[in-house]
Amino acid sequence: MEVLKVENLEFSYGKRRILNSLNFTVNEGEICGLLGPNGCGKTTLLKCINRILNPESGKIKINGQDTSCLSRNKIAEIIAVVPQELHVVFSFTVLQIILMGGTIRYGLSGIPSKKDYLRAYEILEELDIEHLASRQYNELSGGEKQLILIARALFQNAPIMLLDEPTSHLDFKRQHQIMEVIKKITVSRGITSLITLHDPNIAARYCNRLIMLNRGEIFHQGLRESIFHKKSLESIYDMKIKIERTPSGVNYVFPEPETLPQ
Amino acid sequence: MSFLNLKRFRNKKSLPFIIVILLIAAAIITALTTGHYYISPDQLFKIITAKISGKAPGSDLATPTIVLWSIRLPRVIMALIAGAALAVGGVVFQSIMKNPLVSPSFLGVSHGAVFGASISIIFLSKAAISIEASAFFWAITAVTLAYVIGNRGINTLTTLVIAGVIVSTFFMASASLLKYIADPYDELPAIVFWTMGGLNNVLWIHVIRASIIIGTGIAFIYAFRGKLNLMALGDEEALSMGISVKSLRIRFILFATLIVAAANSSCGIIMWVDLIVAHLARGIVGADHKRLIPFAALTGALFLLVTDTVVRNIPGGEIPISIITSFMGAPLLAYLLTKQNKQWR
Prior knowledge:
Chain A is α/β, with parallel strands linked by helices. Chain A has helices spanning 42-49, 72-78, 94-99, 114-126, 142-156, 172-189, 200-206, 224-227, 230-237; strands at 2-13, 16-27, 31-35, 57-62, 65-66, 79-82, 160-164, 192-197, 209-214, 217-223, 241-245, 251-255.
């Protein structure tokens, strides 16, 4: 079932066009990867979908409903965001950060109830990070912070999750740990995820659907099996690429040495 | 998950609150009994019990009763509510600006108030009510102006702080101009003394007026304490969690400005309390506004009462309170800066 539909989306910062006539759909329960070089408009696209930025033209529909007609509250009910990083100036604890995810349910004061505390703790247990509950968020490692932000998005309890480069600052092991968590919660909760990624190997391993962007335009889109090939990747990264298939059937992408800058 | 664990995770530590409340009680007794006219604790107890029971105190207590009831008590209460207002104002401005070094004066509250007081002293009247009203009006005007100028562009927070600097500078220059043209024997000393702050002329009417405004403002801020947590994470985070950032920020700025302007207009400019106490309170109870706002209010009340008591008891006569708050505040902030090397609290 079609959950997210983007129609003729355009966005500019001043006179500089960032997104140019984007059209795509994402189905329920899919992990959709947004691939593309730096500056191609991936983060801007996520911000437009979440209405942090207002598109110049075009429509974003969630379950058939145009998001431009929805209040901030309503958008927060259906879309949860996991930012690339969260710079917290003041020292909040992990539990406080997670509880902020439920603000729309707390009423006027914005204060959580006992039930909310229990629910937040259950989510920490689900992600095996309950030992971090009373730690200061600022004192955590990059990988732990990402897990906390995912936990907060889960606590927000929205059917769509937008993740902005969730693996970009992480080591090899943590990258896969975070992606496994995303895969697990997508399956177990039926969440639809839209993830911007830099590493095509991560995209190939974890995403069902891919959208390949370059210079604000969609170059290729579709199910992973149909579009994850040499030519499509070369066209968005402007370099020669080699794909090798391992005996276990996983595709791995390598840059051709002669195209790397010397 | 057990109830005990839940209690632990809810992080309800009441010890700092108990300590500050006990210190406030001790500070109130000290402030009421000490000064140029000494009132013994025994006399204090007799006067209070007489007032509570509705009986007239004995003739030997006539003078202490007047000193206590007409001079010290309104002053002590004003120190408590003004201190609470400045501290809570500091917390709110720091949180909505996502900056631990911001104080209400960043958006022009203080300089607007000085300008307003100067206008009244030179052109209108030197009566306290006129100075207060003018200081209050211009403090609110300065912040409104900063908000109107700053509420543009992509990064509203940054432009807001820059607009605050612009408006503050403008009102500071205007106040300097007024000082330049003021009568050096009459008006200029009045402006300078008001600028340095003090609670020496506080009457019950000031206390009642300030209590209403400050009480309302702090009650509103506390009512929205949970949403202030999200504002402290930044605009995008708050928007993503379903908060209408712009309208909420306007409301927080309005009520924080109201309480700080009410304190400034009654007591003059009292420096450092907003910045220092907000910072200190965060360091002790953390950043969650559910605990931070009441704790900052109590700590601000304690800080200003202690400072005012020191000011009153300095040999050689009372000096403006900002001199003492600055002498206490600057080293305290330096200490906090060096201690909290890991993270701003």
